[in-house]
Structure formats: C-alpha cells, structure tokens
Specification:
2 copies of one chain form a homodimer. The first copy, chain A, is an alpha+beta fold and 349 residues long. Chain A is built from 9 helices and 13 strands. In chain A, strands 6, 7, 8, 9, 10, 11, 12 and 13 form an 8-stranded mixed β-sheet that branches. In chain A, α4 crosses α8. The radius of gyration of chain A is 20 Å and the shape is globular. At the A-B interface, α1, β1, β2, β3 and α3 of A face α1, β1, β2, β3 and α3 of B.
Chain lengths: 349, 349
C-alpha cells in the first residue's frame, strides 16, 4: 500500500485488486495470499492451508439440499488442497446459522463427514454462531472452512512454474456445473441422465485429491477450476509470466454440449465455475505418464501449450488459423457486477 | 450421534449441545472440538489452531469503527492462542462484505495489521466475497479468522488439568467490556475516563499473549474469558471434573463498579463477555511466581480455589458463610434467547 488517500475511483474495486491493495503484505512465510493454499514449514514438514467462505445467495441457493451443501462446503476447500498436491489432514468449520434446525444440521454434517472420512480429514475445531436476522436483515447462512494438508515441498508446483513449451492439461471434463446452474435458473432444459449428471457435478463436486498427489513432482504449475478455465489458467499465466494457446477441440466436455449454441458452450466450458477440476502444466516428457494417469475416477486431457507470447489465445486446434478468441485474463470476481463477470469472455466468440 | 431421529424437542438446541451432537467426532488428532484451540503435531512440533467468526449484529454493531473492528476480529482469535500459551505465527482471513468500500477496508486492514505485526503474526491466506443483499435486505458483514500458533506440548495446560487444591487466577480486571455494551445500548451512563476506559476494553481488547506464554508449564488449566468468568471457568470445571469456590471480594474490577447496583456488578464482572482476560488454575506452590507476574501491561489475581465438590459457589471471601450464589455451569450461548443467556446467572444473587 502506498500512502495516498484510498479511493474507489470511477469503478468499484474488483476482488483481486481489493485483496492486493489492502491485504497483501510481505509475510516472511514461504507462500502468501494469492495461491490456492498458503504453505508453512513446521518442524521439517510443510503444511498447505486454505480457507474459503460459502454464503447463501452467493455460492448456494436457500433451498439447497443440506447434505449436498455439507459435502460441497468441504469439497471446495479439499479442491484447493488437491491443486497443491496435498494430503488432507484436518479442517476447522465456522458456521453462522439463521436458526438451529436439527434436521438440517443432521443432513449437513452427514454430507460433510462422509467426504471428510473418505479422505481421512478430521474436523478439529471451529465456531458456531446464530446468524442475525430481523427487520430488513436476512438471516444468511454462512460457512467458512479452513482445511490443512501436508505436502512434500520439493515436489510442490504452485502457480508460478509454467514454462514455454509446457503442455496444458485438465482433469475430467469442464462446463457441467455451469450448465447445471443455467438449468436451476430455468434458462435451459437438459432432460434425462445428461441433465442429472450436470446437477450432480454442481451439487457434489469431487475434489481431485488423488490426481493432485499424483501430479506432485510432475506438474510445473497447477490450480483448481473454481472460477472458470480461462480465468484460473490466467492466474497461472500471470504468476508464471507466460502466455498460452488453448485448443477448443481438445477441451474435454460431455456430449450434450454438442447440441447447444456455441455461445453457451464457451460460457460453460471456458468460463463456467464450480467444476473443481485441476488445470496444470507439465513438460512434454511427462506425456506418456499423464496419458495413462487415472485418479478420482477421471483421467487428464492435453488442451494446449504454454508459450512466451503474452495473453491467452483460443484456437480450434494446434493447427488452427486465426484465434477463435483472445481472452483478457480476468476470472470471476465477486465485486464486479454479474454482467462483467467471467461469462463475458465468451461474448467475443 | 446415535441413530435415532433427530429432533429439537421442546427447547431449541443450545450452541454447545448442537456442536456436541452434530460435529463432535473422534478425530485421531490430539485435541478436538471444545477447547480454545485444536492441537496438531507436525514434524515434532505442535501447532495450536483456532477459528472464530464475527458477525455484524451479533458480535459488533453496524456503525462500529472499522479500525477497531479489524483489531478486535484478530484479537479474539489471538486470545484463544493466548489461552493455549501459544506463540502466534500466522492467520487466514475470510471476509464477506456487503460492498467494497475503500475507506472502510483501509481502516479495517490498518487495525488488523497493527495488532498482527505487534505479535509477528502473518496473514497468509483467506477469501473475500461480496455478502448477499437485495431488495429491502441488508447485507451482513461477516469475518472468519483462523489463527495458528506454536506451543510446547510438554507445557500445555488445556482445560482438563485443574485439580482440587489448585488456586484460581484471573489476569487484569473483569466486567468493563460488558459495562461498555450497556453504555452503548443506553442502559447506563459512565462519564469521563472510567467510561472511556470501558469502551476501549470492549473495542480494542488486548490478547494476553505474553501472559499466556509465561503461564505455560505453570497453569494446570487455562481459558480466555470471552463469554463471562463463571461460564468460561465452568468449562474448566466440567472438563476437569472438579468444583470451585470463587471469592467475590477478590475478583478484580475497576473502581466504578463500586457505584453500581449489585445486580449490574454481578452481571458484568461474573457473566459479562468480551473481556479476553485469562482465567487459569495453578498449584499453591506457584503463588510466589504468579504474584510477581506482569505481562501485556497487567498482573494476575487469585480469586478462588478448586475443590472436589461439584458446581461453582460464589462466596464473599475465603471465610464467607453461605454462598452468595451457586451457579449453573452455562455460559453465553448464541442459540438461546438473549434473556436466557449468561447475565441470567446474576439474577440469583
């Protein structure tokens, strides 16, 4: 921070600018704000630590299934640990509840503990508070989870190690969670198993914990896709000071997208959040290993290439002509108006 | 949890009951939910970890000074580290903001970082989100902080080590924060420096970090007074399976209490929250050391004695006759109605 008078100026602050301006300080710790996880060295070991807040009306709808919410609240934090290649160890839960509803709590804790136990991740502490509600004040359910995992620092990738010539890979498939959100909002109807599969992806994301650990020592940079492929890959490009080409034909997506208008495809697959896949970079020498890698029920797909040209260019394939679109490196930002958020990237297409 | 159908029954669940029913699981970690901090062993060292959430309308008023709020949000977490005798190391901040207001954020971060830097405690991560607000519905500011410190496990007290014959001690003085809350609510007027001192105690509590570390290896049990002396001491008694006598004449309080009705004195000094002093137990052999102990600008005062009789009895002094009151071991509980909360303990006096 400089000493000048702070001002919003003509535009409201974006989330990342806000964090940089008011909360980024030299820490003395090995990793600071801005990565999926902070790292701290303790007694010769290294912990990866992440904290995320989920708010009713922002991250989930008031009528959400509480068991799914319990799963998802922990899953989004475990996904950050996955991006760091960490083994989950424990977590803390802060819960602000408009009311203490036994049936709701039983389902929420069941969903949360089922996921926690499947990863050997213990709930060790936290805080429970009644959320305020009254005249003109909505009682908003909020959930803050801090998750802690263990990593091997020598094999840690972070976001800053992508190098020109590296391949870009992504796990599983992208866009289903964003398509599910459009379904829930009544903007689109996807009948049958395809639609149900999308809803499952949104409600019960699978953190790619096993994949993340398998990538430790192989990936040169990694991040989880929480805000959209182009935005999250953009963080890697910015931190690594490199550019990228992404090949649209290669980006893994379920067949139902073939029946949708291209603008919808782009919006969901390239800029849709909440998929919690891993996007990562790796040298070409790792291709044989990665092409055979399976973890958490999915494999990984090569979707592009890091180069030294600033910016991110989407082409149809490696031999494509002019880029289909060139993307400004900006991901979903909670402090910008929805119309300015990530899906706008697709409008150029 | 048993397998029976959950039900609120005739009374809504209290906070502690709620946590015990839905969130207490065997963890495999060395300490679980219910202490000031969770402890985890990492590479031969031990970390103390705590997480607290502060909500507008519950823990602070909408017109709170943002610099004081930044201080207090971190202070309440550092106070938990102090109770564990920990050296603060780092923290994570989750912030849900109704709007990104540059002036507010600048003041909030200034207050938070001033305290953080005075304890060498680095902000290493977190999350910033826009709090939901809509037509006629105000967005609620919420702050969740997770703080991490280092302890010497061999000298850690926790809450369960109090033994009959131990003295009960408290740091500084009690009741000023509760008196300040009554002032802010217009229930009482305390003019001049005495009133200003109370407001300062409520708005800018001092976590007793130096005292907490000095007590490591001396105290047999310790807790910070966040919910009220009797309630917080009650947690030690419950966890240690002991009883206590507390001597009203000995409980340290500022002179202004001498001018107030006894019910107000009891309510503030015995059951008022937010003082963030340390209450702890120690063997009589530690008296010479403790009587000369000064840290964080305050000393410690002997206020009572642990015994084997269940419950907590308040007497005027060690030679008092019948107890002034016998206290049910229940501290402030966010899920009970305000009229049932901690101050009711004083009504018996």
């Amino acid at each position: 921070m400089d000493g000048s008078e702070p001002s919003d100026g003509p535009h409201p602050l974006g989330e990342f600018e806000l964090i940089a301006r008011y909360f980024a300080r030299p820490t003395g710790e090995r990793q600071g704000i801005g990565d999926d996880c902070a790292l701290i060295d303790v007694g010769g070991q290294t912990l990866a630590i992440t904290s995320d807040m989920l708010l009713e009306g922002v991250h989930f709808l008031p009528d959400v299934d509480p068991e799914a919410l319990g799963h998802k609240a922990l899953a989004v934090n475990l996904s950050d640990l996955a991006a760091a290649g960490a083994r989950p160890r424990c977590f803390l839960l802060d819960l602000a509840l408009p009311r203490a509803d036994a049936r709701w709590l039983e389902a929420f804790s069941r969903g949360m503990f089922a996921l926690a136990q499947s990863h050997g991740c213990a709930l060790i502490g936290g805080d429970t508070t009644r959320a305020p509600q009254g005249a003109g004040v909505a009682g908003v359910l909020s959930i803050a989870i801090t998750a802690i995992g263990e990593i091997d620092r020598a094999r840690y990738a972070g976001r800053s190690g992508a190098r020109p010539g590296d391949d870009i890979w992504v796990s599983g498939s992208l866009g289903e969670a964003a398509l599910a959100l459009a379904m829930r909002r009544g903007q689109i109807d996807i009948p049958g198993a395809a639609g149900a599969g999308c809803l499952q992806r949104m409600d019960r994301p699978t953190p790619r914990i096993a994949l993340g650990q398998a990538l430790a020592g192989v990936a040169t940079a990694a991040i989880d896709v929480s805000d959209g492929l182009l935005g999250d890959l953009g963080h890697i490009l910015e931190r690594s000071a490199v550019g990228a080409e992404v090949y649209w034909a290669c980006v893994p997506r379920v067949p139902v997208f073939g029946q949708l208008p291209q603008a919808r495809q782009y919006a969901c697959v390239l800029a849709g959040g909440d998929d919690y896949e891993l996007v990562f970079t790796a040298p070409a020498a790792a291709r044989p290993m990665l092409e055979n890698l399976v973890g958490d029920g999915v494999g990984v797909t090569r979707i592009g290439r890091i180069d030294a040209t600033p910016g991110l260019r989407l082409r149809d394939g490696p031999d494509g002509a002019a880029p289909l679109l060139t993307v400004a490196l900006q991901s979903f930002d909670h402090f910008r108006a929805p119309s300015e958020a990530a899906p706008s990237a697709a409008k150029e297409g």
